[in-house]
């Protein structure tokens, strides 16, 4: 019996019936709704927002949150599979779902009041309210503690000044989860579109995540009522807890990008004839393809165990760092190798490899660069902080 080239260790057999159903549903959506339009959207630098109602209808926004807040109550493995199948289409689409679910809905659920949960989460689950997450600043990057955005009490309100950079969904978001220094440490606030002094600017000229909206956020004495402050967390553990949720999903997403690239490379090398035989009949091509399959299989097993640990309540942030580092590196290397196997054709967006390779330049950078995650593991091994 032939093995599935994209599941050599029959990982599907390790999934529950519900997990398999979730993966199959999102895979169909990616095949029928995403893949036919995403190449053009990437070329045009356009986020396909027409897909948002369908994404919401499938229950992909806040899928792991309780049903009472509009979520689907799915487990962590199911959320990982959602990210994997969406990123098989495009990293930009997975980024949208990741930001909405892990970076915006999660902090309101985990750190917000019951009033805030009921006010925003159901509408976010339906896509009626779009969120963005404001932590990164232009000068800060990997050092979030160096943020310059400040929130100062003014009576029963807060005045916020500062800016945020590289914010997915920023130009179209209805609310923004903003982290700022206060006299009591770093705190989170929910800013609403239309608040005086709150403005956004789309970032243009991107060569990566072109099918995603990225922006900068600016705060000029934005008056925010205290009821919009997330009351149940203080300090960096707030935003870092959100990032850990997002990094978990990113550990799964690049597997989908890698599978898409391998799928294309297999078909192309079997069809393309050079020197009297298909490229796939050469030893050099087969060695490359086999190595890709090995790395994908390793990444799949790593992600699945990560999900099982998360569902068991045993997940450690260092394990997320290792998986994010490994799987992003795996995927970007595979995308580049597949581009090479396609030859000159590989540089056009009529094929998926170059699009995924370009997107993965962002994925390997955001939510902690590869170097940051390497240093997290180094600190865990040695007990010495080298940051």
Number of domains: 3
Report strand order across the widest sheet: 2-3-7-6
CATH level-4 homologous superfamily of the largest domain: Butyryl-CoA Dehydrogenase, subunit A, domain 3
Provide the CATH top-level class of the largest domain: Mainly Alpha
**CATH overall fold name of the largest domain:** Butyryl-CoA Dehydrogenase, subunit A, domain 3
Written account of the structure:
Strands 2-3-7-6 form a four-stranded antiparallel sheet, with helices on one face. It has a three-stranded mixed sheet with strand order 1-4-5, covered by helices on one side. 50% of the residues lie in helices and 15% in strands. The chain contains ten helices and nine strands. The chain has helices at residues 17-44, 52-57, 76-89, 91-111, 114-125, 237-271, 283-311, 317-341, 352-363, 370-382; strands spanning 131-134, 150-154, 157-168, 175-182, 185-192, 198-202, 214-225, 273-274, 277-278. It folds into three domains: 11-125, Butyryl-Coa Dehydrogenase, subunit A, domain 1; 131-228, Butyryl-CoA Dehydrogenase, subunit A, domain 2; 237-382, Butyryl-CoA Dehydrogenase, subunit A, domain 3 (Up-down Bundle). It has 387 residues and is an alpha+beta fold. A hairpin with a 2-residue loop joins strand 4 and strand 5. The model has no long low-confidence stretch (mean pLDDT 97).
């Amino acid at each position: 019996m032939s093995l599935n080239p994209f599941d050599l260790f029959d990982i599907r057999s390790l999934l529950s019936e519900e997990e398999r159903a979730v993966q199959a549903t999102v895979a169909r959506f990616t095949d029928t709704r995403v893949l036919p339009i995403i190449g053009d959207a990437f070329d045009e630098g356009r986020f396909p927002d027409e897909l948002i109602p369908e994404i919401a209808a499938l229950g992909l926004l806040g899928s792991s949150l309780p049903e009472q807040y509009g979520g689907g109550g799915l487990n962590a493995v199911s959320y990982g599979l959602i990210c994997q199948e969406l990123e098989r289409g495009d990293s930009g689409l997975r980024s949208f779902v990741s930001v909405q679910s892990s970076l915006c809905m999660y902090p309101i659920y985990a750190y917000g009041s019951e009033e805030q949960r009921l006010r925003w989460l159901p509408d976010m689950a339906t896509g009626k309210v779009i969120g963005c997450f404001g932590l990164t600043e232009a000068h800060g990057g990997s050092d979030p503690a160096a943020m310059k955005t400040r929130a100062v009490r003014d009576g029963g309100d807060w005045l916020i000044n500062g800016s945020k950079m590289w914010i997915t969904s920023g130009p179209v978001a209805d609310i923004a989860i903003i982290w700022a220094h206060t006299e009591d440490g770093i705190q989170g606030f929910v800013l609403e579109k239309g608040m005086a002094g709150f403005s956004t600017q789309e970032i243009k000229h991107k060569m990566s995540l072109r099918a995603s909206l990225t922006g900068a956020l600016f705060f000029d004495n934005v008056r925010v009522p205290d009821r919009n402050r997330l009351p149940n967390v203080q300090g960096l553990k707030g935003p870092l807890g959100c990032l850990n949720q997002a990094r978990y999903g990113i550990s799964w997403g690049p597997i989908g990008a890698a599978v898409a690239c391998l799928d294309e490379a297999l078909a192309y090398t079997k069809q393309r004839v050079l020197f009297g035989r298909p490229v796939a009949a050469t030893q050099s091509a087969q060695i490359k393809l086999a190595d890709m399959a090995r790395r994908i299989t390793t990444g799949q097993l790593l992600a699945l165990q990560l999900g099982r640990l998360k569902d068991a309540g045993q997940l450690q942030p260092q394990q997320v760092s290792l998986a994010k580092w490994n799987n992003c590196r795996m995927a970007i290397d595979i995308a580049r190798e597949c581009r090479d196997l396609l030859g000159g054709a590989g540089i056009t967006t009529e094929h998926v490899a170059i699009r995924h390779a370009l997107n993965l330049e962002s994925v390997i950078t955001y939510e902690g660069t590869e170097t940051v995650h390497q240093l997290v593991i180094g600190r865990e091994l040695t007990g010495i902080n080298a940051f």
